[in-house]
Amino acid sequence: MQVTDVLIIGAGAAGLMCALTAAGRGRRVLLLDHANKAGKKILMSGGGRCNFTNMYCEPGNFLSANPHFCKSALARYTQWDFIGLVGKHGVAYHEKKLGQLFCDHKAGDILDMLLDECAQAGVELRLETSVSEIARLEAGYQLQTSAGLVRCQSLVIATGGLSIPTLGATGFGYQVAKQFGHRLLPTRAGLVPFTITDPQLKALCTELSGTSVEDCLVSCNGQSFRENILFTHRGLSGPAILQISSFWQPGDTLHIDLLPHIDLPEWLAEQQRERPNSELKTLLAELFTKKMAGLLADSWFVNKPLKQYTPGELKAIAAQLADWQLVPAGTEGYRTAEVTLGGVDTREVSSKTMESLKSPGLYFIGEVLDVSGHLGGFNFQWAWASGYAAAQYV
Ligand SMILES: Cc1cc2nc3c(=O)[nH]c(=O)nc-3n(C[C@H](O)[C@H](O)[C@H](O)COP(=O)(O)OP(=O)(O)OC[C@H]3O[C@@H](n4cnc5c(N)ncnc54)[C@H](O)[C@@H]3O)c2cc1C
């Protein structure tokens, strides 16, 4: 039987940060993962460049049934702390936009940095190892793993959420939480594209698949995001769509302002005065791709020279472009979602230590908890911050 101070299950973003920090404090740390490689999601993230944090990270960038929970950890390990670590390792990075920091070269630079820190601190990393049983002892826990029995004082669950099962995601963390009497909040896919089945809308999306519209304002349930949207074969994606998906519930209507930077009624009236013989599709081609302008002019409106539109018709065109309303059929689900919303109820976990309030010595960090960030590096910042917080106490 192996005996260790700290056993961390899940060598993803949160588990790696917790391991290197706890080992840095002099704790004996064993980090287990059932996958054949640590940090698979880090490697896939940010289109292969890992959007590892956000310069403007604040508690307001996170969703949770308990919105205050994330504050303490985020304040004790900030984006600047992680940027400092990245700088120490000489990893080249840049701001893409909106404070989002990406590696210049590859996401692997962040994973190598974390693995290097783990190795230097003496973390024992064991891959391709699964856990079949967990028992609580008087002090600590005993686990049956595929590599034998392990005893530890502190057990950290860092197994993430359900998103992208092909990258090793499982519901393991939720099962452990349940075993030790924790409440789970319903889980669903977040930061995920929408699917559309309405035949007319679907035809539009398929025709425009690959077309991006810059600077749209997408709103739902009192939340709005201003960013690009992208048409796909199956529906809609792009940053503004992914963001709003975390606030959408089945049956809800999305409101999309395709041109929030233009006062449309005034602009259309002005164009009608200045170029009365121009057709609507010619005018729209100055705002969208030619193909999209043609499709909108023909399928949403009746295309004709501007002078032939009544003021009421122009008003209706402006209203439709500024408030395109649609009800998605659903989302692409965990297959492509960047995060899992919901999870272990944070009201039963200490916001200071990440320790279970139900079972001493048991800790939950990262995405397995009911804390999910907006798109833009916030989810990794939560993984770093919660992993760091737990590491001070394990
Ligand atoms: C495609 C994609 C791109 C993303 N891009 C970004 C981005 O650019 N910026 C950003 O901030 N966020 C991004 N995210 C979100 C981010 O990756 C996650 O929020 C973050 O990885 C969560 O960290 P975690 O350590 O809690 O979980 P994970 O990183 O998912 O790690 C969990 C680990 O636990 C292991 N595990 C699971 N079950 C078991 C088990 N039963 N036994 C043993 N081990 C187990 C897994 O193999 C995995 O290694 C992206 C997500 C995806 C899917």
TrEMBL record:
The chain crosses the membrane at residues 6-24. Residues 5-392 form the RsdA/BaiN/AoA(So)-like Rossmann fold-like domain. Keywords: FAD, Flavoprotein, Membrane, Transmembrane, Transmembrane helix. Residues 188-339 form the RsdA/BaiN/AoA(So)-like insert domain. Pfam families: HI0933_like, HI0933_like_1st. It comes from the Bacteria. Gene3D superfamilies: FAD/NAD(P)-binding domain, HI0933 insert domain-like, Translation factors. The keyword Transmembrane helix applies. Signal peptide: none annotated. Its cofactor is FAD. InterPro entries: BaiN-like, BaiN-like_dom_sf, FAD/NAD-bd_sf, RsdA/BaiN/AoA(So)-like_dom, RsdA/BaiN/AoA(So)_Rossmann. PANTHER family: OS12G0638800 PROTEIN (PTHR42887). This is Flavoprotein, HI0933 family. It comes from Pseudomonas borbori.
